[in-house]
Amino acid sequence: MAYPLVEGNIGKYCTLNGEKVAFDSPDGSRLFVPTEEITYYESVRFQQGILLFWEDHMERLKKSVSAKEDFPIDPDTYHFAAQSMIWDSGMSDGNVRIVITKSLWLVYLSNMTYPTDEMYKNGIVTTNLQWERVEPHVKVFRGDYKKAVAEASSRETKFGMPYEVILSGKDGKLVEGGRSNFFVLYKDTVYSPSEDLILIGITRKYVKDAITEAGLTLEEGAFTMEELVRLETEEDDGPPKLALFVTSSPFDILPVHSVEDQEFRSAECPKLVKLMESYQKIVHRYIELHK
């Protein structure tokens, strides 16, 4: 399905093949017309003007391109364009999107809805969608997938409108979020599905480091809703030992309050709170190192 090169843009211009191009110009307007070209992209968050984990984003972009067409990319040029755009905007925190096809590359500031403090404190509402992604490790625009996720996100649950969609396979096991990686923390172990089933998120890499720093262990594993409900109902009156959470560049680590109409006490889990704190220390170290 054809898809435009630009969506959710903010500001009046982008950098297209190294040139500053206004969105309302003829060249800029064409970026909103759906294209049949394979389109690769990375969304990179910046904080205090620093592009977070840039090297990892570019490595994933390179792998996505080499998996399908294998043409050269130029991370240093994209970085200069992105950093210049951040400086010109005067923004300290936000999001930059890098979009590439075989014939062009562009960089622009993109609109991103970040979680509220309440979401971090209480967890997010999610819904479930059975969907097995084609080539999940290759990050390209897929119109059918985006449409399915958008439709699922529009269905209100018992706890309100979903903030994220949790994908499950034909076996019913929950594997990843529509725009995030999905984890289950139970007692001292964090479970993540097999890496060949999911898009390997950049945040996920550093969450794995935070898991070690928090004194937890990581194991491969996935659960059905029935299995998670059983673990939830086994909880005693003390602090919860079970926590569901999602991770991504826009929101770091977010506790899951509900999946469909099932409630979880994820945000109350002390070990998840400790893990979230460990991750923020890693982000802070990266920012300080790259200032």
What does this structure look like?
Helix 6 crosses helix 8 (270-290). The chain has helices at residues 26-29, 54-68, 75-89, 117-122, 143-153, 202-213, 225-233, 270-290, and strands spanning 13-16, 19-22, 40-47, 50-51, 94-100, 105-109, 124-130, 164-168, 173-177, 181-186, 189-192, 217-220, 223-224, 242-248, 252-259, 262-263. The protein folds into 2 domains: 13-109, D-amino Acid Aminotransferase, Chain A, domain 1, CATH 3.30.470.10; 117-289, D-amino Acid Aminotransferase, subunit A, domain 2 (D-amino Acid Aminotransferase, Chain A, domain 2, Alpha-Beta Barrel). The radius of gyration is 19 Å and the shape is globular. Strands 7, 8, 9, 10, 11, 12, 13, 14, 15 and 16 form a 10-stranded mixed β-sheet that branches. By secondary structure, the chain is α+β, with helices and mostly antiparallel strands.
Question: What is the topological layout?
Answer:
Layout: E1 13-16, E2 19-22, H1 26-29, E3 40-47, E4 50-51, H2 54-68, H3 75-89, E5 94-100, E6 105-109, H4 117-122, E7 124-130, H5 143-153, E8 164-168, E9 173-177, E10 181-186, E11 189-192, H6 202-213, E12 217-220, E13 223-224, H7 225-233, E14 242-248, E15 252-259, E16 262-263, H8 270-290
Parallel strand pairs: 7-8, 7-15, 11-12
Antiparallel strand pairs: 1-2, 1-6, 3-4, 3-5, 5-6, 8-9, 9-13, 10-11, 10-14, 14-15, 15-16
Element-by-element helix/strand order: EEHEEHHEEHEHEEEEHEEHEEEH
- Rg over CA atoms: 19 Å
Largest sheet: 10 strands, mixed
Low-confidence spans = none
Mean pLDDT: 94
The CATH topology of the largest domain is D-amino Acid Aminotransferase, Chain A, domain 2
Estimated structural class: alpha+beta
Tell me the strand percentage band.
25-35%
What's the domain count?
A: 2
Which term fits the overall shape?
A: globular
Q: Kindly state the number of beta strands.
A: 16
* Terminal Cα span: 41 Å
What top-tier CATH class of the largest domain fits best? Alpha Beta
Q: Number of helix segments?
A: 8
**CATH architecture annotation of the largest domain:** Alpha-Beta Barrel
Instruction: Please bin the fraction of helical residues.
Output: 25-40%
For CATH, the homologous superfamily of the largest domain is named as D-amino Acid Aminotransferase, subunit A, domain 2
